[in-house]
Structure to design on (226 residues):
């Protein structure tokens, strides 16, 4: 069935190092969203990518959507302790009916050592 | 953030109890979602409502019963739960089942 795979499951970095998480879908996505969940918190929307090959930046965060719209990545440059949390991707598929389906990746838990 | 509220924030219940979780969104959205988040499966979609109509039921056991009386309120009725149902239950809303989802703070449920 449809699913979105996300790797790695965990990542431990030293503050100042870079971090990347990847998502791959078995089918073409209409769009992909990224969320961040701080420890003890709830997922918070970061960004949505819609176009093939799209790249968006938010300060130290760079989001990419693959040309085939089946994969995506989130890259954080020079991590800070405030980046700690779990990062989820959510791929949207538009089936034949009118209702869209979201498939969340399993998340990458980022720990940053000061 | 107060766009999506959930009550109670914590709930402990026995396996024979009946309880309900409540979600309310103040964002004017018309799609609402229930998710289960546990250590084993980080984010599991349970139910989706679009314009008060249930459009998704992800093979959820019948001991979980959703109710959406209007586009601002969503309930999850619980009865005869199992210890493995202990988890964080998150409610979310979005505009017309597209775009970003706004999550509530969740209800931490413990079944004893």
């Amino acid at each position: 069935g449809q699913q979105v795979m996300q790797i790695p499951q965990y990542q431990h970095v030293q503050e100042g190092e870079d971090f990347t998480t990847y998502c791959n879908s078995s089918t073409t996505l209409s769009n992909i969203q990224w969320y961040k969940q701080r420890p003890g918190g709830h997922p918070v929307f970061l960004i949505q990518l819609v176009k093939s090959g799209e790249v968006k930046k938010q300060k130290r965060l760079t989001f990419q959507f693959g040309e085939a719209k089946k994969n995506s990545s989130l890259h954080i440059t020079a991590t800070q302790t405030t980046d700690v949390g779990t990062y989820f991707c959510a791929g949207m598929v538009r089936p034949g009916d009118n209702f869209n389906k979201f498939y969340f990746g399993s998340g990458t838990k980022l720990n940053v050592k000061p | 953030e107060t766009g999506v509220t959930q009550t109670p924030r914590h709930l402990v219940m026995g396996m024979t109890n009946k309880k309900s979780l409540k979600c309310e969104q103040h964002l004017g959205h018309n799609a609402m979602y229930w998710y289960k988040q546990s250590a084993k499966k980080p984010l599991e979609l349970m139910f989706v409502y679009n314009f008060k109509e249930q459009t998704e039921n992800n093979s959820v056991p019948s001991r979980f019963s959703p109710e959406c009386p209007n586009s601002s309120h969503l309930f999850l009725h619980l009865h005869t739960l199992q210890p493995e149902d202990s988890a964080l239950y998150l409610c979310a809303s979005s505009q017309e089942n597209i775009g970003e989802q706004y999550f509530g703070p969740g209800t931490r449920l413990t079944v004893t």
Remarks:
- Chain B has no helices and eleven strands.
- The two ends of chain B are 31 Å apart (CA to CA).
- The longest strand of chain B covers residues 87-95.
- Residues 22 and 80 of chain B are 18 Å apart (CA to CA).
